[in-house]
Amino acid sequence: xxxxxxxxxEGQTGQLCNWINQVTLDDIPEExxxxxxxxxxxxIACALVGAHLPxxxxxxxxxxxxxxxGTSSVFGWEMSVTPLSAxxxxxxxxxxxxxxxxxxxxxxxxxxxxxxxxxxxxxHLGTSNIKTSGKTFIxxxxxxxxxxxxxxxxxxxxxxxxxxxxxxxVFGPAxxxxxxxxxxxxxxxxxxxxxxxxxxQACGLMSAQFESDVKRMQHGFAARSGxxxxxxxxxxxxxxxxxxxxxxxxxxxxxxxxxQKEPPYRVDEISKGLGTEWKTNxxxxxxxxxxAGTHPTVDCVRKLQEDHPDKMKQLDKIKxxxxxxxxxAFHHGGWEAKxxxxxxxAQMSNxxxxxxxxxxxxxxxxxxxxxxxxxxxxxxxxxxxxCRNMGKGNGMRQKVTVAFDDGTELAAEVEAAKGVNxxxxxxxxxxxxxxxxxxxxxxxxxxxxxxxxxELESLEDITVLGELLRGITKNPIA
Length: 478
Description:
alpha+beta, 2-methylcitrate dehydratase PrpD, CATH 3.30.1330.120, four-stranded mixed β-sheet, two-stranded antiparallel sheet, 19 helices, 7% strand, MmgE_PrpD_N, MmgE_PrpD
């Protein structure tokens, strides 16, 4: 039987597990508790928009062939499946259209990892008459927001993307396990077991971004892995002890290989600043429906369109476009886009997103309808575009230079994308929620979900919100 105490209270894993076990909602600043509700609303918006995308429907069909029913709701559908499958599917919906949050210090999409696991766990516990209150849910959610980026920073954050790992799928299992463990009020020793069992399941190949459906699901693997690990630990199943410090086959040891950093990983980041340095502040909400590294490109083009409206409408006069990107963005989205391209590839490509903003003046779900992916006016601009690597140390800094056939050159540069510095306000998140859900659910349902979510701390049973997320939604790109 697993011990209720951690193996080593002085070690990084032990310190983290003890903190998770002991922290209360009163220990967390009130503004972060409020922010959490708005971030949850954004995650729900992304899930409802993503529930009936073509790749989402394929995933639901595959899962429903294997299981007919369960205890946990599938968002946007009139069905329930097992908790593990619900975590997988609902995560894939949130990640389904590149609209979801990301972290500015350690790239991962926290909502797609944490929310599906918590809803699945809460609904499953409800079948045993164990109610999960809104306050418990918020606290568990915030724990996940704190743990994921710490694991990511221990591996130098965006360096994992540069090396070809899908960073959030690597950092995510620990975040999911930590959140669900807190939801179930596990003792510190069992939290250690949960983290150990979660971390051994971590993986994610970034080559998934090139046309595969599975890119949409890889954070779902993390959500499912963390949920499974926490449920195993709750039953006394023993996981890897001291998983972050282990030298032979440890999580950081193995994923740190090939980092070319000195040291290869930073184990101290796991427990650094717990309770005083809040990683939740680094969660960023996307205003555009594309990979985060393309957002500064959109902002550069928007700046040019605002400053030179007449000239920037002369698309047929454009001779060349040069996009200068930071190293992580260059490796992630600076590859050469070739026709034909599916939505997933289009959303990952800086040149395609640049051309889309030039043509349409916005980058939202409608831009990625099948008929829009083959437009000659977009591809003519993509083929005139070149990406250059600005090198390390540039973060999200980007520059776009547009040259016209009359010799005119227009350039715009941003240090960070809209939504990064400054982050979207709570009011802007609500505006986004209303804007992207208006075409997939009716107004009454939209208002009920919004009100319930923003008053989450008063909810006695989280299954009430879970039930509101059931029910058929529409496909925004049909």
